[in-house]
Every structure is written in C-alpha cells, then in structure tokens.
Amino acid sequence: RNTPKLSSRGLSRAFATNAPSIRIQKLLDRKAPVDIHPEVLDALQTKKPVVALETALVTHGFPSPENYALASSLEDIVRSAGSIPATIAIIGGRVKIGLNKNELERICQAPAVKISRRDIGAAIASKANGGTTICGTTVFAAAVGIKVFATGGLGGVHRGGELSMDVSADLGELARCPVGVVSSGVKSILDIGRTLEYLETLGVPVINYGPTREFPAFFSPRSGHYVPWNVEEPISAARILYSQWQMGMDNGALITVPIPQEYEAAGLEIQKAVDHAVAESEQNGISKSGKDATPWLLNRVGELTKGESLNNNIALLKNTALVGGQIAVQYEKLLE
Ligand code: PSU
Ligand code: MN
C-alpha cells in the first residue's frame, strides 16, 4: 500500500491534544481497515482545515475518464481555499481517507459498489472497491473527525416517496453525524418539498449560502421552497457549525450553495430533461429499483441533455468545493 502504516506513537501524542485524534486512536486500537493519507492525518493532528470529498459521484455519477479530471480538480480547488482535501473511498476492502494519485485513478476506473452506511461492512469483508455516497462519506468523515464535506447533489425523498418510502439514507446520516455538508441542494428528480420536511423532522439545520433563503434545486438556484436560515460569508456558516457542536449536539448540518448565476438559463432547459427522465423511470420500473434509481436518473438526464447537464454539474461541484474549503478554514480559526 502507498499509505504508510500509522505510527501509534505519533498518535498518542496527538491523542492528548485533540478530538479527531481520539477517534483515530480508537480506530487504530480496533485495527480498523482504515488508511488515512499522511497529509490528511497530519492536518487532523495539527488542526489544519480538512474537507471531505465523496466518490459515488465519480463511480456512479460521471463517466470515465472525465471523472478523474473532475475529482482531481475538486481537490485542487479545496487546496486553493486553504484546506486539505480528503477524498474518501473503499479500495480493495480498505477505507481510504484521502487518496493518492494511483488510488484516485483506480476508483475512477475499476468497477465499484455504491456505498451507503449499510453497505460498509459487506464491502470491507468482500474486499470490494466502493464509491461512497454522501451517506457513506459522512460516516467516514465523522469517524476521523472531519467537520466539513463538500459535494454536489444531496439524495432525498424521491417523487412518490410517500408511497414507495424511497428516502435517501443521506438524510438520516445528516442527523446522526457531526459533519457540515456543503451541497447544491437536491435535484428535482426528487420531491424537494418533502425532502425539506423530512430534514426538519430529523432536526437537520438547512442554511442557504447566499442573499436569500430559497433552497437551490441543483441545476437551478431556485426551487420555490424556502429554508429558515441563510448566510453570506464562510465565517457565518462556520459559526453556526461551531455553536451547534459547542453545545455537544452531534447532528450535522446542510449548507446549500446555489449554482452560479450564469448557469441558470441552461438549468431551466435541463429541468425539462429531468421531468422526462423521471416519467421514463416510472414507466420502466427503475424508480422501484432501490439504490440503482438515482444513478439511472443522473445518467439519463446526461443522455437527454447531450452532456450539458454534466457541464453544469461540474460548475456547481467546483463552487461547493471552494465554499467548503473556505468554511473549513474559518471553522478551524474558531477553534484556536
Ligand atoms: N444526486 C445528484 N448527484 C449525485 C448523487 C445524488 O444530483 O451524485 C449521489 C450522491 O452520492 C448521493 C447519492 O449521496 O447519489 C444518493 O443516492 P440514493 O438516492 O440512492 O441515496
Ligand atoms: Mn433510494
């Protein structure tokens, strides 16, 4: 393996100094199948800002080889904001917190399972490769004490979810892990209103990053649904996270970053393809296929828009990576 074995001596010094290291020490004590990239480990120990990045979007959301260019540019953007990126995946049954170049290439090319919380044990035991969803990535970020995670589209309540009960595990995970998830809202492949209701039930704060409280609909900055809070600066988002966790609360938070203005018009066109794809999924039964439903819809929207949706998707991912990097920097300053 390229990630050197963690030295438990170095860790016990860190153990005394901060909370992430206590968690890491516990993982080590259990000989957990986790490799923390040395740069990420150092950042966690010396309290540098770290931003988690997911891999289901590269294994199940984007085609190869574009996925590799995207994943590495998201890491670069997090760095440009002053944070250390920790792209998370399962490779050969080991949980990787931060990937080196070979590992990133591998997860972008090799067949991989889509990893939600419930897939973790089985994927490790069967030595699988896995792309972690927001749910799966949040589990691992929390396990090592990463506080900020930047991504694209959150899963949610599917249309018709009041009958099918197809509700993404992403929502429940935000309620149980102390991680601030920076995303562009949820795609209108989902029932946005019910997704927001469910987040409220779970006690997950939803904060829009921008001048209004309108919840963004991924391809569009507007959904017609409103959330209770908005902030306009990274420091303001960081203070909300800090205050919540200072109280000993252990739930996460959702911070939504609308797609940049110049993509709004294209977003409206893509919206039509979204409706078309949802109608098809109901006719062909994919909508009832469990974990395959979301990847199928994402792929179909890409086909219907001849790749236009992927361009918008890349733009918004880059934007959330930047804002996530900035929020992580401000959060660490509050801890000083
Ligand atoms: N929605 C998107 N893009 C994505 C996903 C959702 O617009 O890439 C991915 C994310 O990884 C998310 C997962 O966590 O799909 C949700 O899948 P499901 O609905 O099966 O929980
Ligand atoms: Mn589902």
TrEMBL record:
Give the superkingdom in one word: Eukaryota
Return the protein name: Carbohydrate kinase PfkB domain-containing protein
Q: Which organism is it from?
A: Dendrothele bispora (strain CBS 962.96)
Parent protein range shown? 7 to 342 of 777
